[in-house]
Design a protein that fits this description.
This protein is an alpha+beta fold and about 220 residues long. Helix content is about 45%, strand content about 15%. α1 packs across α3, α3 packs across α7 and α5 packs antiparallel against α7.
Length: about 220
């Protein structure tokens, strides 16, 4: 069965989960999660797959081992098309609506070093500044972990100091719930967003690449 949008029950499910993030709530409403959230997300990513690649759906459970917040469930359903470790395309559904993005979500220390070296170099830093500038001008927001101060070894007057502060960098757009989320227009909006952020993803794949450090 093809993708036809996310039903109202998907947003109602997450509204309820935000109010009662418990195993009791999730267990009582698991059928809504499976039918209104997970199944449509699978259908959506399958239809986007031929153009963008196979997506991985994240589990609904939070890793609370080292977290102060012990809420057991994520209040969103995300899917990720990985191009390189930590770099790729992302889509998410939650009570707040739809979020689509692309970029680098986590970086190991060797990736951060390559990222900053590339931003510092004119031949690669200027194209990144042009890419991110075009995205923000088109209404996209830049996200990612950022230093509050300048990174060591770079002056405050560096032309790309704001980009250098990033330890991770992705661009995305949020869409509030509206009638179109119940239709296949969701697929078109996600596809349009992913096409728009492809230059950023490509830059990161070229200059940052996957981590050379062993994963734990």
């Amino acid at each position: 069965m093809g993708f036809t949008g996310f039903p109202d029950e998907a947003f109602l499910f997450y509204e309820g989960l935000e109010a009662d993030n418990s195993k009791i709530y999730f267990g009582a409403h698991k059928h809504l999660y499976e039918q209104a959230v997970r199944a449509p997300m699978l259908a959506l990513t399958e239809e986007l797959g031929p153009e963008f690649g196979e997506a991985h759906l994240f589990r609904p459970y939070r890793d609370v081992r080292f977290a102060k917040d012990k809420s057991p469930y994520k209040t969103h359903q995300g899917a990720f098309v990985e191009r390189m470790p930590g770099i790729g395309l992302y889509v998410e559904i939650s009570a707040a609506g739809l979020f689509a993005a692309g970029g680098c979500y986590t970086q190991a220390s060797d990736q951060v070093a390559r990222y900053r070296a590339a931003v510092d170099e004119d031949l690669s830093g200027k194209p990144l500044a042009a890419i991110t500038g075009a995205l923000t001008a088109a209404g996209y927001t830049l996200y990612g972990e950022r230093l509050k101060t300048r990174p060591r070894g770079f002056g405050e007057d560096h032309p790309h100091i704001e980009l250098l502060r990033h330890r991770s960098l992705f661009a995305g757009m949020r869409f509030e719930p509206a009638e179109w989320v119940h239709t296949a227009e969701v697929r078109d909006r996600v596809a349009r967003t992913w096409r728009d952020v492809e230059p950023l993803v490509d830059w990161l794949c070229t200059h940052v690449r996957g981590s050379e450090l062993p994963r734990r």
